[in-house]
Design a protein that fits this description.
The chain has 334 residues and is an alpha/beta fold. It has eleven helices and 13 strands. Helix content is 33%, strand content 22%. The chain binds NADP nicotinamide-adenine-dinucleotide phosphate.
Length: 334
């Protein structure tokens, strides 16, 4: 059986940690593994019972690999991905750098895994916020043609990386001990997040949309290959550790009944339909599916409402990358 020489760039981060754990848990066939971080602080990871020290990446070491997972930041992906792809190395990128690049397939394997091919060795994984919507409603879109989506997100703090999550813990502890709110000095977020929420994820454009809102809309259209869908998004950060939730109103072209929608949701790959209960961040964390619940008719014709949820660190990032690698292994292991 083919085993792969892999590298994880950003191994010491939130997504990197989950990715390493999933590669091991899902028994991805690894011959050798290299783990990289910024190299600014000492950091270690554990893989298959062995402890590795992370170091800063360099082109020469990365060139010895066959699959490189990029889970660090846009600059690092920009610096290495295409240079490695030119040498025939698969690059699976979780940053937003290449998601909308025409040369790069934006992949969720259950939806468009067939686009993975040897001519495009840089592959992007999508923004973690749109994943529950993209996966959960993919079959509905295929069968009933979704025309309009209105969605508000409830995004976990780990979606903004380790410093943001540490800020949530630090700010919460300060409030519980001393009864006052203060934004942690290490926080990359615009406000204190402990016991707070704010409708800002990224910076605002000239129309008033945040970066995250624009990403959800553009990336969903690319993944579903449906540029005419109308999508309105409000992205909100909430003081939750992991799992992004979304409240969506969805209008289709074709008619349906609630029971016909239920049947479609029950058959949607990668999704779990919950009929008499609903998902919360605590009951979905570290699970592989996205969840569809609270299905009900909307106020206007052919519109329904749903509550969607999915672990941003799993299906929203690390798991999706591992599934892309599994698809590469299935198609190209010689
Ligand atoms: N968090 C999510 O839910 C999520 C979901 C989808 C996509 N993503 C994307 O996944 C990537 C990682 O996110 P994260 O949440 O895991 O962030 P994070 O917790 O802040 O981790 C960032 C990682 O990148 C490393 N790094 C920073 N600068 C580097 C450099 N110059 N060279 C090599 N490594 C460097 C860091 O190393 P040090 O430890 O040494 O600083 C750390 O390992 C980002 O591109 C993010 O947009 C995240």
């Amino acid at each position: 059986m083919k085993k792969w020489k892999i590298a994880v760039v950003g191994a010491s981060g939130m997504v990197g940690g989950e990715l390493i754990e999933l590669l091991e848990k899902r028994k991805f066939p690894v011959e050798s593994a290299l783990f990289f971080s910024s190299g600014k602080n000492k950091s270690f990871v554990k893989f298959k019972g062995k402890k590795y020290e992370c170091s800063a990446p360099d082109l020469k070491s990365l060139c010895d690999c066959e699959i490189v997972f990029f889970v660090s930041n846009e600059e690092v992906s920009e610096k290495y991905a295409f240079r490695l792809a030119e040498k025939g190395i698969w690059c699976i990128d979780d940053s937003s750098r290449f998601r909308m690049d025409k040369r790069v397939p934006l992949i969720i394997p259950e939806i468009n895994g067939e686009l993975i091919n040897e001519k495009n060795k840089v592959i992007a994984g999508p923004n973690c916020t749109l994943t529950p919507l993209a996966v959960g409603c993919a079959l509905i879109h295929k069968k009933l043609k979704i025309k309009e989506i209105r969605v508000s997100t409830y995004q976990a703090v780990s979606g903004a990386g380790r410093k943001a999550l540490n800020s949530l813990f630090e700010e919460s502890s300060l409030f519980l001990k001393k009864s006052f709110y203060r934004k942690s000095p290490q926080s990359p977020l615009p406000h204190p997040i402990a016991f707070n929420i704010f409708p800002q994820v990224g910076s605002f454009d000239y129309l008033g949309y945040s970066g995250e809102e624009n990403k959800v809309s553009a990336e969903l259209k690319k993944i579903w290959n449906s540029k005419n869908i109308k999508i309105s998004v409000t992205a909100v950060r909430v003081p939750v550790v992991r799992t992004h939730c979304l409240s969506a109103w969805i209008k289709t072209e074709k008619n349906w009944t609630i029971s016909s929608l239920e049947k479609i949701f029950l058959n949607t790959p990668g999704a779990k339909y919950l009929k008499n209960y609903y998902s919360t961040p605590l009951n979905t964390a570290k699970t592989c599916e996205v969840y569809v619940s609270r299905l009900r008719p909307g106020a206007i014709e052919k519109e329904f409402a749903v509550w969607l949820a999915g672990d941003n660190l799993y299906k929203g990032a690390a798991l999706n990358s591992v599934q892309i690698a599994e698809e590469i292994n299935r198609k190209y292991a010689k």
